[in-house]
Design a protein that fits this description.
By secondary structure, this protein is of the alpha+beta class. 40% of the residues lie in helices and 14% in strands. The longest helix is centred in the C-terminal third of the chain and has 25 residues. It is globular and about 65 Å long. The two termini are 20 Å apart.
Length: 384
Amino acid sequence: MGEDGTPEELPDGARPRTSTREPEELQRRLEAWLATRLPAGAEPVVPVLASPETNGMSSETLLFDAEWRNGAGPHRRSLVARLAPEPSAVPVFPRYDLDRQFRVMQLVAERTPVPVPTVLWSEPDPEPVGAPFFVMERVAGDVPPDVLPYNFGDSWLFDAAPEDQRRLQETSVGVLADLHAIDRADEVFDFLAEEGSAGQDALRRHVDEQWAYYRWAMGDLRLPLLERAFAWLEEHWPDDPGPTVLSWGDSRIGNVLYRDFTPVAVLDWEMAALGPRELDLTWMVFLHRFFEDLAKRYGLPGMPSFLRRDEVAASYEARTGHSPRHLDWHFVYAALRHGVIMARVQRRSIHFGEATMPEDPDDLVMHRLPLEAMLAGSYWEDVG
């Protein structure tokens, strides 16, 4: 809402810049690289290459078709490449270990029923296309849009019947339950822990890494609100964080392809980590709450009955037997983590002339008021 209490004007829906690469050059270099991965004489061609129109503000995603020949005749395959961003694109994260994402997706596919795209090749050498990347099969499905958010109206999810929205919610929680059921996750995914951190509590390590990320993302700028949130976390540290599982990391429905309101591909594993189950649960709910708070700000009805905190927690407990704990703490942590990411995205927009630096640095946090309400203990009194 504006200062006079009236709804603010809707944003124009333009996507922030995420790439400075030339598509034609990428096509040529992908063709040359595919020739090294396919049998001799395949003569691969990439006739179509594009970027998704919605979602994704970190790694660069390329959709492309590849054609080649072998002894059985001509082949055509629809593929996706995930590339580390160029430094000139002012990346969201300090490093992009695409091979690590590749390994996570392989292991998740091997050990769970979670639907992840089939990963085909990992190329850690930046030489072929200018950055490390991996290639996976393309899966057809519908994604809840981020720009403009699905709950703003005029989206397939917003227009769906309540029972279909409920099915999507339940099956999405089921993804988390299946993922968290991986036995001995701390051993299977030990490569997710920073070198030298063996034996350290997973939640402690996760928060320490977020603090380091905040310092990198902001450089010489300080955001008092986010630093106050870090201090709040320390003052209210959980007495028992619970078992360590594989955390998807960016566990939001905007990173899932759906068909018939059921997940068919779980995407974007760059934030995968080890930690408590609640990291994923609260991230999924908070990212919806983030969009709900925006909808309220713009005077839109939103989807207030969707992905509600208590319903998601109950659904997860029914599937796993684990009663989610310390939810207030984890929601503050989710809001803090998202605050750092969005402040970094805002600084990138400022760099490219798409936004201007606010007088108050805390205004870089798009959900400043909700985070302040969480720290004051009043946020959930209003939203349930």
